[in-house]
Specification:
- The structure holds three protein chains of three kinds.
- The longest helix of chain A has 22 residues, at 268-289.
- By secondary structure, chain A is an alpha/beta fold.
- Chain A folds into three domains: 2-76, Ubiquitin-like (UB roll), CATH 3.10.20.740; 92-207, Alpha-Beta Plaits (2-Layer Sandwich); 213-562, Rossmann fold.
- Chain A has 19 helices and 20 strands.
- Chain A has a five-stranded mixed β-sheet with strand order 2-1-5-3-4, with helices on both faces. A four-stranded parallel β-sheet of chain A has the order 12-11-14-17, sandwiched between helices. In chain A, strands 13-20-19-18 form a four-stranded mixed β-sheet.
- Chain A is 35% helix and 15% strand.
- By secondary structure, chain B is an alpha/beta fold.
- Chain B folds into five domains: 33-144, 3-Layer(aba) Sandwich (Glutaredoxin); 177-380, NADH-ubiquinone oxidoreductase 51kDa subunit (Rossmann fold); 389-419 and 432-469, Ubiquitin-like (UB roll) (Roll), CATH 3.10.20; 477-575, NADH-ubiquinone oxidoreductase 51kDa subunit, iron-sulphur binding domain (de novo design (two linked rop proteins)); 587-643, Alpha-Beta Plaits (2-Layer Sandwich).
- Chain B has a five-stranded mixed β-sheet with strand order 2-1-3-4-5, covered by helices on one side. A five-stranded mixed β-sheet of chain B has the order 11-10-14-12-13.
- In chain B, a hairpin with a 5-residue loop joins β10 (389-396) and β11 (402-407).
- Chain C is elongated, with a radius of gyration of 18 Å.
- By secondary structure, chain C is an alpha+beta fold.
- Chain C has a four-stranded mixed β-sheet with strand order 2-1-3-4, covered by helices on one side.
- Classes of the chains: A alpha/beta, B alpha/beta, C alpha+beta.
- Chains in contact: A-B, A-C, B-C.
- Chains B and C meet through α3, β10, β14 and α19 of B and α2, α4 and α5 of C.
């Protein structure tokens, strides 16, 4: 039901049941918010969105108050503006003024509010508090002095990630956000997915930087510097540098990376292809054997840690095949090293990725051979963009170059794996293709792409039903558990921690908005339609890699290097 | 015992008329100890009594009786209100009026009892006799209701407090208790009960004054399959102890009120959210619930009415803010007790998302009385818009303190002058603070304001849940405001920014006003002024935007103190002076060389070694070192220390 | 201690979040504090993460994570006691024990906390030591009173 309400002496249309904020936003009136999260219920913690409603003693939060027909609202009266301004001033009163050095500079919501509300001096002074800086996690840094306690990280960790690793501790002015028993992150059940970092309005939670380390090695002439990057990195860099992304941007990125000083540039996508191929073979064998064990894909490192902590019972069914990053990494330290005749310890291998948990994954136990890490340093897209800026690379004036052989190309399926459901789709398609020489029904495959946090399809293999399930963000696990408990069997299960898959990864630019994402997903799906090499098994590059390099190399021909192990993790849950 | 139970249930509770047969009435009188052949000693054993030593008094009385009067009975009763009189003892000799004695500590027991039993009454400790029951008078002894403390009161809700053994359900029934409850659940519909309460005009006694009947109806009309009733007994305002007194002195009436309210809204579970730290009241309430259950007044198909009710006690785990409705619900659900957004209100979506009515103790204590005497009776008490009575906990610097009950419409001044009997030690009054830690200060002409929701709201004064603190001239208002702000600051839940940060900033600024200047250079002075300039803005924004009542009302003491005692604030800020000599930071001590004998007493006690001198010569104080603690001032026997 | 926690847990229904606070209260009543082990066990039993249990427990003043001292002093700081000088009493205790409210001394003898109102508004300042009330306390009595109790405990 539509009715009119009066806002700032003008009439606007409002819908029964909606909040004041949504009515205002639809009518082009902007109200600042801080604790609000899209698609979450309002909590009313920040009080930024207050408006004046005639007849009410106090100001009313627009984010929660339903509109009513009689309402006369003032959104920017002096009283409202003073209130908003004072609230931000109160937050700033003991905020560390290190905006110049802050990780969130230029992306900080608090900074933007201070600017919007025209705060020009610190009128309210307060004792500065110096809470400890938690740098214990390989992926996430917690700077409590910058925390404004909006609670967004707590909610995302509980309601989306379901790891429940963060909560408010203590109360009143002593409140802070932290893991169990107020320990540091490395002792906690944090799975390093970084969704909290994406939610944080200030610089209180941010990634742990590896730029300095990478820079040090870039300056070291005795070391061979190698970088691999995931399919999403190019579009992220384009976004961060403010350039229109096109398919050729990958090749521009290659030359940028070489100018920075990387000796070799490889595509993580090749590793993804190997990963898909190996999984497809494994699934094929399972189907052949009539194996009733489900095969859980282990490509998402945050999910792997989640499983190790919360559902160790499934670990035996978790595929031991390493993630694309680690496969590429291990090939660099073995194959490429051999090929170039360099000792693996003389190679510094960097990975650029949209994922935060990869920083943690690179340091896992099983990700090392003879004391040498598969991947030495992991950078998010944001960090890589900083590095590019640091080296003053002018994008407009650069010639595209190919990546280095033999990991210079990928099938379109490798990009597909960056979107939730894509990995499972690529695996089942490959299995089907390997068996029958054709791909399964396209329309059926598309059902894995959208439709909530739990999606499933059944594909027929010689009269046998093969069920595939896709868990898009860990909230879907509850549905899976319910179905499995009820006796349902799945042959292949893909789990992605970030909602929507790596496309929502915590390493992407903060400005990478919803529409950018949708465009990118569309491009990935379009590419998959037109690309001739739409599966790893159709890729001549991959065939070449397997036949000429991997199978020829005595050391790695048994493919043991592609496998790792998982075990129950003892953390404070 | 079983026989007594059957009698009380069948002949009293289930007896379908308000006038009981003479035989029954006679037996009830015995239960009420009105017809007794032996002396009875009633010892007030509430928390206030126990703090004053009632436990030892009880033991001493027991020992005395064992040795001298084996026939006599000692009863631990609830507390009737006057805290100054604790340990408060009442003695009833067969056929004679009850006599009340004050401050009977264990050492006085023997003399007192010896005297009373031999008709030789010690007038020093005597308070008065209770008349009006047709017993033999004590000549020459004043009546209890002639004492100003009681004379001004209108005791309706408290009429049972201090009169019976709170652990005895039998006595409560013999006093007419549970009868209206049994009648209600057997003869009235839900709507009828809500209507009666609505007609009575009863308003929530927790401060807001929301019509109770309306609240019940809102929950009843939600069409949900289950509802909850919560009795908010989390009274945590500093200086408020009315609920606790009622709980420990008359728990059965509360249970009856809860049961009627639960019936009226169709709830089969009622939860009492209990204040932490009142172990004594907790045990009594628990026992009371057990005995009510034993009598079939709680449980399944109560008195064959088809009504089921379970009452659960939950102990509050210690957070001031969870007295707020939504925070209380969060706490009961096992979450951090942080207030939630309203709407939805608890009456539509409360505990586990079900409609929930939350009433405070005093509100529910009124309910059985209304059901018993009718809405018209209740309406005839008090003022037009605020019928009934109000219970206050009078504390602070008044001559009398304790829990009192007055008719609505009584003025604050009447409570102060008549019931509290003015200020201790003849000091001047500064203000009265109503409504706990976030209440405003009332002074001067405003003291003539009647206790009435609307009259007080008009003046911007909150009635609060029953705190009534009397403040005299020895109190520094700035220091008091700082103290209250500190309380709010530590008790803020930390959820919303204006409250969490606002209380902190206000506290820091107030501290800077009373703190000793490290150096009086322009920097710190300027900073102090700048801070003070912001206080009012912060206060008004907190009031305007905070999520719950805690933050909204936290600046009240400051704002009303600033309005009424602006000069005192200005003295602190500009003249760096505290007229009450409370603020340590602003005191300077000097030694009068003429009076100082050089005894070294002050120098040896000075915690910061700021006093120097040679023995038997006048000493001196180094001002930079002095922290203004005043220990030297207190210790000097020659009044040689001067304070400025 | 293990078995104690387990036997308390058994009294409550598993997976019921609304019984979490009474459960924690009972464990604290028996053990004197909530140990890390207890928190983990409660979490497993109720089906909540340790983070949430800890976050909840730290919100409320009642729960403590280190054992209380043998001499537990509680000071009332309600408005009435404040007007009658509770601040000086608190300072005296702080000076004597060197502790902040809620802390326990290293030797495990003293711990003290501040509460908002104990109900002895007429007898202020009121303190309680091991649940026994002391009305009209003066700051200069504190050292004698506490040292005497300490002496008794140390020689017990």
């Amino acid at each position: 039901m539509l009715f009119t309400i009066q806002v700032n002496n003008k009439k606007i249309k409002a819908e029964k049941g909606e909040t004041i904020l949504s009515a205002l936003n639809r009518n082009g009136i902007k109200i600042p918010t801080l604790c609000r999260m899209k698609d979450f219920s309002p909590t009313g913690a920040c009080r930024m969105c207050v408006v004046e409603v005639e007849g009410r003693d106090r100001l009313v939060t627009a984010c929660s108050q339903p509109v009513e027909e009689w309402m006369k609202i003032k959104t920017h009266s002096p009283r409202v503006i003073t209130a908003r301004k004072t609230i931000v001033e109160l937050l700033l009163s003991n905020h560390p003024d290190d905006c110049l050095y802050c990780d969130k500079k230029l992306n900080c919501e608090l900074q933007r509010l201070a600017e919007e509300l025209n705060i020009r001096e610190r009128r309210i002074k307060a004792r500065k508090i110096k809470p400890r800086l938690d740098q214990s996690s390989p992926a996430i840094v917690r700077e409590l002095s910058k925390c404004i306690l909006c609670g967004r990280c707590v909610r995302v960790c509980e309601e989306v990630v379901t790891a429940n690793s963060l909560d408010f501790i203590r109360k009143g002015s002593l409140t802070h956000v932290g893991p169990a028993m107020d320990r540091d992150f490395n002792f906690s059940s944090c799975i390093h997915c970084g969704q909290c970092v994406m939610m944080c309005p200030t610089g209180a939670l941010h990634e742990k930087h590896n730029i300095a380390e990478v820079q040090d090695f870039l300056n070291n002439t005795e070391i061979v510097k190698v970088i691999q990057y995931s399919p999403l990195v190019a579009s992220g860099i384009a976004e961060e540098l403010g350039i229109r992304f096109n398919r050729d941007f990958d090749r521009i990125l290659n030359s940028m990376l070489r100018r920075i000083g990387f000796d070799k540039v490889f595509l993580t996508g090749t590793g993804t292809d190997i990963c898909i191929y190996e999984l497809a073979e494994q699934l094929g064998r399972n189907i052949e054997k009539g194996d009733v064990k489900p095969l859980y894909i282990s490509a998402c490192p945050a999910w792997v840690k989640f499983a190790e902590q919360f559902i160790p019972g499934i670990l035996t069914n978790l595929s031991t095949i390493k993630s694309p990053q680690q496969i590429t990494g291990v090939l660099i330290k073995t194959l490429i090293a051999d090929q170039a005749g360099i000792k693996p310890e003389k190679i510094f291998s960097v990975s650029a990725t949209p994922c935060m948990a990869m920083k943690f994954e690179a340091r896992r136990d099983g990700m090392m051979r003879k004391g040498i890490s598969d991947v030495d340093s992991v950078m998010t897209v944001r960090e890589l963009a900083r590095l590019i800026r640091l080296y003053g690379i002018d994008v407009s004036n650069i010639e595209p170059e190919p990546a280095d052989e033999p990991m210079a190309g990928r099938s379109s399926a490798a990009s597909l794996a960056e979107v939730s459901g894509g990995m499972a789709e690529a695996v089942i398609r490959t299995t089907h293709f390997l068996k029958y020489g054709i791909e399964p029904d396209k329309q059926l495959m598309k059902r894995l792409r959208t439709g909530g946090s739990f999606r499933e399809i059944t594909v027929m293999f010689e009269g046998k039903e093969v069920s595939v399930a896709v868990i898009d963000s860990l909230t879907g696990l509850a549905k899976l558990k319910a179905l499995v408990d009820a006796g349902k069997h799945y042959d292949l299960i893909e789990v992605m921690t970030c909602p929507g898959g790596c496309i929502n990864g915590a390493g992407l630019p903060f400005s990478f908005s919803g529409s950018d994402r949708k465009n990118r997903v569309k491009m990935i799906y379009q590419a998959d339609e037109v690309d001739a090499v739409n599966l790893p098994c159709k890729s001549p590059l991959l065939n070449n890699l397997y036949n000429k390099f991997i199978n020829e190399n005595k050391e790695i021909a048994d493919k043991k290097i592609f496998h790792t192990h998982f075990e129950k993790r003892n953390v404070l849950l | 015992m079983e026989d007594l139970k059957k009698f009380l249930i069948n002949e009293v509770l289930l007896f379908e008329s308000d006038t009981l047969p003479a035989d029954t009435e006679k037996r009830l009188q015995e239960i009420r100890r009105e017809r007794t052949s032996k002396p009875v000693i009633f010892i007030s054993s509430g928390t206030a009594g126990l703090i004053a030593g009632a436990g030892k008094t009880f033991q001493a009385a027991q020992a005395f009786i064992g040795d001298n009067e084996p026939g006599a009975e000692i009863v631990k009763v609830g507390c009737s209100g006057p805290a100054n009189f604790e340990p408060f003892v009442c003695i009833q000799l067969p056929g004679k009026n009850k006599l009340f004695f004050r401050n009977i500590t264990e050492d006085k027991v023997d003399t007192l009892l010896n005297g009373v039993f031999h008709n030789d009454i010690n007038k020093d400790d005597l308070v008065g006799q209770q008349g009006g029951r047709g017993f033999e008078l004590w000549p020459g002894i004043q009546f209890m209701d002639e004492i100003s403390f009681f004379a001004r009161q209108r005791r309706v809700v408290l009429n049972n407090c201090g009169c019976y053994d709170p652990e005895s359900v039998e006595e409560y029934i013999a006093r007419g208790g549970y009868k209206s409850y049994v009648k209600t659940i057997r003869h009235y519909t839900y709507e009828e009960v809500c209507n009666i309460i609505e007609q009575s005009g009863l308003r929530g006694r927790s401060g807001g004054g929301y019509p109770t009947g309306l609240k019940w109806k809102q929950a009843l009309n939600t069409g949900s399959s289950s509802r909850f009733l919560i009795c908010n007994a989390k009274e945590s305002d500093p200086g408020a102890f009315t609920d606790r007194l009622m709980l420990e002195s008359d728990p059965h009436r509360l249970i009856e009120g809860i049961a009627i309210a639960a019936y009226a809204i169709g709830a089969s579970t009622a939860i009492i959210f209990f204040r932490r730290g009142s172990e004594h009241a907790y045990k009594r309430l628990k026992r009371a619930i057990e005995s009510a259950r034993d009598y079939g007044l709680i449980g399944h198909n109560i008195m064959s009415s088809g009504f089921n009710l379970d009452i659960i006690i939950r102990k509050e785990p210690g957070a001031f803010v969870c007295g707020e409705e939504t925070a209380l619900v969060s706490t009961l659900e096992g979450r951090r007790g942080m207030p939630q957004l309203k709407p939805p209100y608890p009456t539509t979506s409360g505990l586990y998302g079900k409609p929930t009515v939350i009433n405070n103790v005093e509100t529910l204590m009124n309910v059985p009385l209304i059901m018993q005497n009718g809405p018209e009776w209740f309406n005839s008490l008090g003022t037009e818009k605020s019928p009934g009575t109000k219970v206050f906990a009078v504390a602070g610097k008044g001559r009398m303190s304790g829990v009192v009950e007055v008719e609505m419409g009584t003025t604050v001044r009447e409570i102060l002058d008549d019931i509290a009997d003015g200020i201790k030690e003849g000091k001047e009054l500064k203000a009265v603070q109503l409504g706990g830690a976030s209440g405003s200060f009332i002074t001067g002409d405003s003291l003539d304001i009647p206790v009435d929701y609307d009259a007080m709201k008009e003046k911007g004064i909150g009635m609060g849940a029953g705190g009534f603190i009397i403040i005299d001239e020895t109190t520094c208002m700035v220091d008091l405001v700082r103290h209250l702000m500190e309380f709010m600051h530590t008790e803020s839940c930390g959820k919303c920014i204006p409250c969490r940060e606002g209380t902190g900033r206000m506290l820091e600024i107030l501290e800077s006003v009373i703190r000793k200047p490290v150096s009086e250079d322009s920097g710190t002075t300027l900073e102090r002024f700048k801070g003070v300039m912001q206080l009012e803005t912060i206060a008004s924004v907190m009031r305007d935007t905070s999520l719950c009542g805690l933050g909204q009302t936290a600046p009240n003491p400051f704002l009303s103190a600033l309005k009424n005692f602006r000069d005192e604030f200005e003295e602190h800020i500009f003249d760096r002076k505290c007229r009450a000599n409370i603020c340590r930071g602003l005191r300077t001590f000097t030694i009068d060389v003429d009076k100082c004998t050089g005894c070294t007493a002050c120098a040896s006690k000075c915690p910061v070694n700021a006093i120097y001198g040679t023995r038997l010569q006048p000493f001196f104080i180094v001002e930079d070192k002095c922290i203004g603690c005043g220990i030297c001032y207190d210790i000097c026997k020659f009044s040689a220390i001067k304070v400025k | 201690m293990n078995t104690e926690i387990d036997s308390i847990l058994k009294k409550y229904k598993p997976g019921r979040r609304d019984e979490l606070i009474p459960l924690m209260q009972e464990i604290q009543d028996v053990n004197g504090h909530l140990s890390e082990e207890a928190i983990v066990k409660i979490g497993n039993y109720i089906g909540l993460s340790t983070t949430k249990i800890y976050g909840l427990a730290t919100f409320y003043d009642q729960f403590r994570f280190i054992p209380a001292g043998k001499i537990r002093v509680t000071v009332c700081n309600g408005t009435s006691c404040f007007l009658n000088g509770s601040k000086a009493v608190i300072n005296a205790i702080r000076e004597l024990t060197g502790l902040q409210p809620g802390q326990t001394a290293r030797d495990g003898i003293f711990s003290y906390e501040i509460v908002t109102c104990m109900g002895g508004c007429n007898n202020g300042p009121v303190i309680s030591i091991n649940d026994e009330y002391y009305p009209y306390v003066k700051p200069e009595q504190i050292p004698e009173l506490l040292n005497k109790l300490k002496f008794i405990i140390e020689n017990d």
